[in-house]
Design goal:
Elements: E1 15-16, E2 23-24, E3 29-30, E4 35-36, H1 37-43, H2 48-59, H3 63-72
Antiparallel strand pairs: 1-2, 3-4
The structure holds zinc ion (2 copies).
């Protein structure tokens, strides 16, 4: 059986990355876009990391919240 360049495991089907040419199994990349896991990271089209940060900022306490807390104690 052929061996995946990314995880080093034998795989029934290998795909060739259109960016770096690495042979990867279906667990080590996106067969539809022909990108290995490493190159998917570089493309970064999902942008999920940035979205998560925006959510955090919304949950931060404002100045008013702190003043109310101090008066109540
Ligand atoms: Zn693999
Ligand atoms: Zn690649």
């Amino acid at each position: 059986m052929p061996i995946c360049d990314i995880c080093g495991m034998e795989a029934v089907t290998l795909y060739e990355c259109s960016r770096c040419g690495a042979k990867f199994c279906d667990e080590c990349g996106d067969p539809k876009r022909l990108l290995c896991y490493d190159c998917l990271d570089l493309e970064g089209e999902e942008g999920w990391v940035e979205e998560e940060w925006e959510e955090w900022e919304e949950e931060e306490w404002g100045e008013e919240d702190w003043e109310e807390w101090e008066e109540a104690n």
